[in-house]
Amino acid sequence: MDIARFLGGLCGLILLGGTIGTASGQMTINGAGATFPYPIYSKWFDEYAKVDPSVRFNYQSIGSGGGQKQILAQTVDFGASDGPMSDDNLAKAPGKILHVPTVAGADVVAYNLPGNPALKLDADTIAGIFLGNVKKWNNPKITALNPGVSLPDQEIVVVHRSDGSGTTYIWTDYLSKVSAEWKQKVGTNTSVNWPTGIGGKGNEGVAGQIKQTPGALGYVELIYAIQNKMPYADVRNSAGSFVKPTIESVTAAMATAQIPDDFRFSMTNAAGQDCYPIAGATWLLVYERQKDPAKGKKLVEFLKWALTKGEAMAKELAYAPLPDALRDRVLKRVDEIKIQ
Fold it and tell me: For all residues of the chain together, what is the average pLDDT?
């Protein structure tokens, strides 16, 4: 399937749906936020239009930072973020915001090298590259991990997100766990002061920058690397195993997570031989008490469908569905949304 063409056409359909809705009385539910889950959310919105033709979803893929801001400002009916909202941000909200986890995915280390060799990287090397300490492809740290691979005497062009991003939150959360220098100098957030590199907007923008820049290396959500036919590295996890980013290795990481009642959790650098270390969940952000009862009812119906029927579509787009036990907990929380 050509995901890019599918999504491009779908954007038009979603926007068209919003226009038609005005004329026909069709309800439009507006959302904004994360680019990380955009492919699966677009699929869900398209499929749900067949389940309930009376409602259309207009989702703007603007990054997790934007999603958090817009749900706080109540300019959207739901937000989306790959980083959980901080206590400080939640305290600014005019009502209680619920975190509804939907799927999990992998941040992959994608790159552009002649011949696109398969590479292995470890935490120390990845942190060194993004701190600006490992500057060339033939650096001894990289060559030692990749015996037999011919690596050029070429500058590494680091590519990172320029917008507030949950993909960045997952990435920096991982680096803060594996590198004391990163934690001290840069830290974990949806937007940080990058020590080196060039920026791209959205997963789409980063993927585009990597693909068009010889010697580039950056992080994108797995489906964007697959769609753009870019190679991505196996990463050594905390157990010492080099692991490919796959649905199975992300699922293994999610299984180790300690998930509290508010569903705000991290799954980076998970312990376990089979765990991919740079993985994270993504959340829909909704108010516990809905201001508009009609929209609230439709939103709850969609959430229940997404967490059951929608989850079955996750794997075809390289996302890991929620484990059954977690999904059941989340469904109970959705039942607590007040629409009156």
Answer: 93
